[in-house]
Amino acid sequence: MTKFKMSVNGETKVYGIIGDPVEHTISPFLHNSAFKAAGLNSVYVPFWVTPKKLPQAVDGLRSLGVQGFNVIIPHKVTILQLLDDIDHSVRRIGAVNTVKNENGKLKGYNTDGVGALKALEEANIKLQGKAIILGAGGAARAIAFTLTKHVDEIVIYNRTETRALDLSSELSKSSRIPITGKKLDFQLSSEKLGDGDIIINTTSLGMYPDVNSSPIDPNVINSNITVFDIVYTPYKTKLLKEAEARGAKTVPGVNMLVYQAIKSFKIWTERSVEDKVFFKAAMSALERH
Ligand code: ATR
User: Fold this and answer.
1) Which of 204, 208, 210, 214 should be mutated for ligand 1, with most atoms under 8 A from CB?
2) Using a 6 Å CB cutoff, which residues line ligand 1?
3) Which residues lie closer than 8 Å to 221 by C-beta, 6 or more apart?
């Protein structure tokens, strides 16, 4: 754990994260380390907010002058209608993961898409060909919308098929590449997945404590595929281990977490802190998982 002396006083600015559940998040480690590195008198705390309490919580955060907050499961889409303004990234993606309090008005942003893109670029992954996205939730939306500009085809597989179909038809409206939605099931054949250039898992399968689960049969993975799992607890998920064993390139989810956090931090504070501060905080937080 990154150790630092924190002193909260009457001038401390408060930031946070809302979710249900929220206790698994490691974002407080990242942002509090960055505040310290930037010499800012600010603190980032978790808020457990159930869907029923979301409207009151958002009003409360606004009234209390909380300067900014992240939004996670399951509020990324439902929070849209409760905000005063949204950034162009949200207009396109339709999901919010970052909110900034601008003089009492709450403005929503999305940094998940750019975070995922940066994670792939930094891992030297050539984005081209066919992208297979597993899951159709908030994170899948952000990644899919971002990838439409970089790949030639997208296929979205989801447990609830209708969500995959809805997301793919929504994406198709503003994109010229073929985008299809299908039912995700573990037994998907290699003919279906094996011709993908990149497989991105956005489902929670494999996330702690469900560490022995994986969304797909490992036999569909070959050495020509890149596998990116946005789950970051554990650092190396079962899917990533199986992909590595089959010679595939892999990208761990913590990289996306860090790059989306760096972007959120910049939106809130207009300050930049070295990437390594965020990575160090993330890695030491994960060691404790
Ligand atoms: P996020 O904002 O992180 O994307 P979300 O919007 O709640 O979270 O989406 C979670 C995704 O994980 C969904 O695609 C969900 O599938 P459903 O639409 O069928 O619910 C997927 N998911 C969660 N648990 C799953 C499981 N046990 N098996 C397969 N998919 C699962």
Assistant:
1) 204
2) 73-74, 76, 135-140, 158-160, 163, 202-205
3) 193, 194, 199, 227, 242, 243, 246, 248
* From 36, 76, 107, 238, the catalytic residue: 76
| 226 DSSP assignment | E
* 135 alpha carbon – ligand 1 mean position (Å): 6
Q: CB pairs under 8 A, 24+ apart, for 100-109?
A: 100/67, 100/68, 100/267, 100/268, 101/61, 101/62, 101/65, 101/66, 101/67, 101/68, 104/62, 104/65, 106/58, 106/61, 106/62, 106/82, 107/83, 108/71, 108/79, 108/80, 108/83, 109/264, 109/267
Radius of gyration over every alpha carbon of the chain, rounded to an integer in angstroms: 19
Task: Please give the chain's pLDDT, 289 residues, in tens.
Answer: 555 566 899 999 999 999 999 998 999 999 999 999 999 999 999 999 999 999 999 999 999 999 999 999 899 999 999 999 999 999 989 999 999 999 999 999 999 999 999 999 999 999 999 999 999 998 999 999 999 999 999 999 999 999 999 999 999 998 999 999 999 988 766 557 778 999 999 999 999 999 999 999 999 999 999 999 999 999 999 999 999 999 999 999 999 999 999 999 999 999 999 999 999 999 999 987 6
Amino acid at 59: D
Name the residue at shortest CA distance from atom 9 of ligand 1.
137
Closest CA to 202 of 128, 289, 119: 119
Asked about 5 being catalytic, the answer comes back as: no
- Verdict on whether the full-model pTM lies above 0.90: yes
